Amino acid sequence: MTLQSRFIIPLTLTVLFLMSACPAPVAAAEHVVAPSGAEFVSIQEAVDWASGGDVIFVESGTYFETVILNKKIILTGVDSGGGPPVIDVAQQGNGMDIRVDGCTVERFVIRNGSLFTGIRVASSDNNLRKNTVRGFGQGILLASSQRSVVSGNNISENGRAGIALESSNSNDIEYNSVTKKYRRDHARRVLALEQDQPEQFQQQPERHFQECHLPVDLNRHVLVYLPGP
Q: In which domain, by residue range, is 133 found?
């Protein structure tokens, strides 16, 4: 055996050992939920089965359940012909509880929990996008949450608050519509929440800082917009 081969063989063995000790990352799996004919018929069953980092697509239909995200999941509603999927909690609890960091919930209708919260976020770095939340005590609650994004959601007819923050900071809350009808005039109130004041609000600050009876607890830059008739 030559001197060169005595060096090459141990080096090759070392490389092979390191490759076996550091396996390639596993790609995220995708799962489908539908009222029938899919891998799952329950959103929570799909979440329980999935691994952290997986993507769950939920097709059109009404799902009578509450959902707890206790692992990092991307949960996406898909209009498969009957509109966005609906989570109807039937007054049984919060619509969605997000308990771990890094989750995404988008394109759902979440409804029918007047004593509870539509989406409760008790973690950080989450994304809530283009959801409709209605008929709860609170629409969306961020509790001890940082760096989460709440964007493009339609939040209506919630009894106590549209969007509320408790012990939360450094969150991006933007382009959400919060509406509520009042018995006297059924006026429409839209609560626009942004960390940076939009230009149109800066032009007429006296118009937009009017009294609004939406009890929302926020940490910065609360702007209330009352559109004209």
A: 27-175
